[in-house]
Design goal:
3-stranded antiparallel β-sheet, mainly alpha
Length: about 150
C-alpha cells in the first residue's frame, strides 16, 4: 500500500507527464498535417488506418481488441473506409468465414509518407534522450496504452 507522501509524489508526477504529453499533442495538431485531411475522417477511422499500417492485415476481432472498441464499430468503420477505397476486406486464408482487413496500396503510401514527415518534425523534441531513454519511453508508453 503506498504511503501518503508517495501517493502525492506519484499524482504530481503523473500530472506533469500528462501535461507534457498534451503539449506534444497540441504541437502536432497545430501543424494541421495528417493523412486524408480532405476526407474529414473521424478519429476512429484514423485509429483503424494506423492500426492497419502496423500489420499486413487484421481480422475485425483483432482490430476491435487493439483499438478497444466493439466488433460492430470496427465493421461500420471498415465499411465506410472501404467505400472511400482506403481498405480492402478479403476472405481469410485460415478461416473462409472470416475476413482480413488491409490497407489499399494508396492508403499505405499516404500513411507511410505522413509517418516519415511526422517523425522528422517531432524527432527534435526527443534529441535530449539517449537511445536507451527512447527505448524505455517506448516500453513505458506501451504499458500505459495496453492497460
Amino acid at each position: 500500500m503506498p504511503v501518503v507522501g508517495e501517493t502525492t509524489v506519484r499524482a504530481e508526477s503523473l500530472a506533469r507527464v500528462i501535461e507534457r504529453m498534451a503539449i506534444v499533442t497540441r504541437e502536432v495538431n497545430a501543424r494541421g498535417a495528417y493523412p486524408f485531411k480532405t476526407l474529414g475522417l473521424r478519429r476512429a477511422a484514423m485509429n483503424l488506418l494506423f492500426a492497419l499500417a502496423r500489420s499486413d492485415g487484421a481480422r475485425v476481432a483483432e482490430l476491435a481488441e487493439r483499438l478497444g472498441i466493439t466488433s460492430g464499430a470496427v465493421t461500420q468503420t471498415v465499411d465506410a473506409l472501404r467505400e472511400l477505397g482506403l481498405v480492402s476486406s478479403d476472405v481469410s486464408p485460415d478461416d473462409r468465414r472470416g475476413r482480413v482487413i488491409s490497407l489499399t496500396a494508396e492508403a499505405r503510401t499516404e500513411i507511410d509518407g505522413f509517418e516519415r514527415q511526422y517523425i522528422e518534425a517531432v524527432a527534435p523534441a526527443f534529441d535530449a534522450l539517449s537511445t536507451a531513454d527512447v527505448l524505455e519511453l517506448d516500453r513505458i508508453l506501451s504499458a500505459v496504452s495496453t492497460s
